[in-house]
Structures
1.
Amino acid sequence: ETGVTQTPRHLVMGMTNKKSLKCEQHLGHNAMYWYKQSAKKPLELMFVYSLEERVENNSVPSRFSPECPNSSHLFLHLHTLQPEDSALYLCASSLGRGYQETQYFGPGTRLLVL
Amino acid sequence: AQTVTQSQPEMSVQEAETVTLSCTYDTSESDYYLFWYKQPPSRQMILVIRQEAYKQQNATENRFSVNFQKAAKSFSLKISDSQLGDAAMYFCAYRRNNNDMRFGAGTRLTVKP
């Protein structure tokens, strides 16, 4: 369970705040992902990075801004969020982007936007 | 449109019994991968088992096995000899090519002692 870590585990923020979520993987993987998990809804892929380059952005609002400074770290910068953005945000990594690759998930950051 | 459907929001099983979780998916592809992930309460999501679509043999991992029916686009998970630690949300997922993984809405499994 320590292969992919996320901080903070819990975050409460106001709609005018700016905060960042951090993900770190210790598995030597080359691809990293951000997912949003809302209650009673399927996981939604937000961003995909492969070798530190963004390869996919699933029409995510600009108030979410990802950053991947190296293959081990992934950030999600948050600003002027809305209450409906409250959710569990999961980070995942995989060895490559191939569809056969298993994705390894972090514990998530539970975000509450007031 | 929903690609992966888990029709059972909640299931329960008696400890040591067997339970089957259902999953259907929609695709016109012939080559893809299917996954079952487990998310225990307040813990990380982990892979339980995966199946390559071009392999006819059903995948098994200890007490976990799948019933993969390609023509019916069905991918159910069977848990044998259920244990208290099996209690979790179970997510079925589908992935083709290098596109994003599509998850079902999940099934919450309760294990009764």
2.
Amino acid sequence: EVQLVESGGGVVQPGGSLRLSCAASGFTFGAFAMHWVRQAPGKGLEWVALISGDGEDTKYADFVKGRFTISRDRITDSLFLHINNLRAEDTALYFCAKDSGDYGDYVCDSWGQGTLVTVSA
Amino acid sequence: QSAVTQPASVSGSLGQSITISCTGTSSDVGYYNYVSWYQHHPGKAPKLLISDVSNRPSGVSSRFSGSKSGRTASLTISGLQPEDEADYYCSSYTSSSTLVFGTGTKVTV
């Protein structure tokens, strides 16, 4: 059974940085691309980023503007999202999701339950 | 990124059928057959219902079906059940090699 467990969220001051993690199990981690998707309070889902199974290719939403970095570790089967210069509008529940393909079918076939990031002074 | 629009809410009675629309542009929904649909009960992990416009993964009820015409994709839920009350999102691959989600639809049974 695929399991995705996010961690690393919390309350951060504006301008601060954070690293979110997603521990994956139940599938061959390196064989699938992975996504980060976020949901601001009371809002809909918003795609953030994708990384290919081998970690060589990444794609980002336009709003990221260089502040976010997606990465993965095939030894620990973990996905990461580094966020710099946090803004109030980054306050959201951040989900990691498994793609159905290795280079990105852009289909999120399994999801975690999310980790909450709150940006507040 | 372009906006993919869905109705904010749709309601139906037990056993009825409802359809949720997902309208995009010629750079996403209108060009690619890479439209997916997700069900999200708040507080839980979202669940994939449909991929590639109309493909239903194993384990997903046959009451859920997808289609597309032009720039608009649709999700139909037949035989509405209480557990279908949730938020529903479409998504589409885009010409920028990104993913865009629809604005979301709250379904009330």
3.
Amino acid sequence: GENVEQHPSTLSVQEGDSAVIKCTYSDSASNYFPWYKQELGKRPQLIIDIRSNVGEKKDQRIAVTLNKTAKHFSLHITETQPEDSAVYFCAASINYGQNFVFGPGTRLSVLP
Amino acid sequence: NAGVTQTPKFQVLKTGQSMTLQCAQDMNHEYMSWYRQDPGMGLRLIHYSVGAGITDQGEVPNGYNVSRSTTEDFPLRLLSAAPSQTSVYFCASRQGPGRETQYFGPGTRLLVL
């Protein structure tokens, strides 16, 4: 079955710097890759996603890139702010979301 | 629209007890799923449903049962609770084929003693 790895497990950046989180997946049939943000004690919330027929997607300060050949995808956050501090999870799914496998998460801390 | 709701918010059980975690959505979503979240392990899929009357196992189904008699409700049953089932449980739903965005409930924190 699908296996999703995520690195780094923790990341600290200075406010205003960029943050990059990387995920790799094992099943070449995966075709949908969402990223979720989870604040302490809260539910995961979708922040951006990408389908396998797209190489890059951007939404304001957040972007996701996908390399199908290498089976990895990355989350890029520019101009980080303290409110970006949270745990970020990547996921991969086949059949455009029928079944999701999540990475273990990255705890991002944005230092003022 | 309440979205995805879960009850209870917090529960303490003794080993061997059974209970049902409730999940409901009012968005007429076809797909619903149950995940458990443990420290350092992300979210793991327990069971999922692609419509009323249809359920299937996820990555970690042992010790859990589900049923989907209506579109709105997707309860998760713990048959005989074990300390290893101490976790935070999230229910999620999404509209259906071609609509990938998944919405999560607020979670149920379960402690099994």
